[in-house]
Structure formats: structure tokens, C-alpha cells
Amino acid sequence: MKVKDTDILIVPGYTNSGPEHWQSRWEAKLSTARRVEQAEWSKPVREDWTAQVAKAVNEAEKPVVFIAHSLGVATVIQAMPQFRKPIAGAFLVAPPDVANPAIRPRHLMTFGPYPREPLPFPSIVVSSSNDPFCPIEVAEDIASAWGSQFIHAGEAEHINAEAGYGPWPEGTMAFANFLTRL
Question: Rounded to whole angstroms, how far apart are CA atoms 87 and 74?
Fold first, then answer.
């Protein structure tokens, strides 16, 4: 699959992805990419966020490929029952452990727990061994339950701009490889 043949939906997490974040950079470079906007980036409400993702999917004219980060991953997964169109694939980066009662802010737990069934589309989960929002073992378990390919990103913290992942060339290569296999 080529970029021009897809509707790429960028789904950021809590507080959105700023201009230096790899998601924002990819959005600017991928011709068919668009961000799923949320009304309240700093006060996520599961029903509102999932409705926005479902709306974007259901309005898509081409096969949808997700590029989700952090709480965006949970949003995509929880929105699946509302999709009226098939999904071509999902590139899921740094999923938070939304079942962990120690997660902060606490209202992020309303996006959990994750379903444990295999996803009905190809997917990759990318996670870090020192992500403060999800232990690597939990991320690996989630990926396994979903039938996702798992990519261990090393010690990459939350794989965001604050952790030094602005351009993220390794991620670009992994996504390009994933897209060619769809």
C-alpha cells in the first residue's frame, strides 16, 4: 500500500502532539495524513474522543491507516465498535497502561481496560523499556493479545519530543515498511 492510496489518521494522546513531536512532523510530510482533533486535549473524555476517531474513520474515502501515540492508542482501540468501515492497519506507539491505578492523571483510566481479543486489522505496537506510562512487559502482553507485531524501541522513554523523538527516523522506516506490507 502507498501513502496516496490511504487515509492516514494521526491520533495524538493526552495534551496533543506539539510541532516538534514526530507525529506532527509525519503529518506535514505524508500527503494523505490528517490529525483527528479533539475538543479538550487536556481533559480527555473517552466517549468524546472515541466519537471523533469513529467520525474520521466513517468519513474516510480510502482505506484507513492509523498512526496513534499514547492515549491515542487507547482511543483508537476503544473506538473500534463504532467503525463502519474496515481498517487497513494501525501503527500504535507507546500505549499507556490504562488499567494501572497509579496512572496520572487518574481520569486516563477511563480509557481502559483494553480488550484482549486480536485486532481485526494488521498492527504494530512500538514501546520502550523505560516508558513511565507503561512497563515493557505490559506493552508486550497487550501486543500479544491483539496479535500485533511488537517493536522494542530500547530506552526511548515515552517516544515523544520530550524524550528526543522529534524526527524519529527509525519510526519512519518502521512505518514505511509496515505500509508496504498492507
Answer: 16
Average of per-residue pLDDT across 69-90: 98
Which residues are within 8 A (CB) of 27 and not within 5 positions of it... i.e. 6 or more apart? 10, 33, 34, 35
pLDDT at residue 106 is higher than 90:
no
- Model-level pTM greater than 0.90? yes
Measured distance CA(100)–CA(112) in Å, rounded: 9
Beta pairing class for 7-11 and 64-69: parallel
- My answer on whether omega of the bond before 96 falls inside 30° of 0, hence cis, is no
Mean pLDDT of the chain: 96
> In the numeric block, which cell numbers belong to residue 65?
491507516
Whether the CB-CB separation of 155 and 132 falls below 8 Å is answered with no
Task: Please state, in angstroms and rounded to a whole number, the distance separating the CA atoms of residues 91 and 124.
Answer: 5
In this prediction, residue 156 carries a pLDDT of: 96
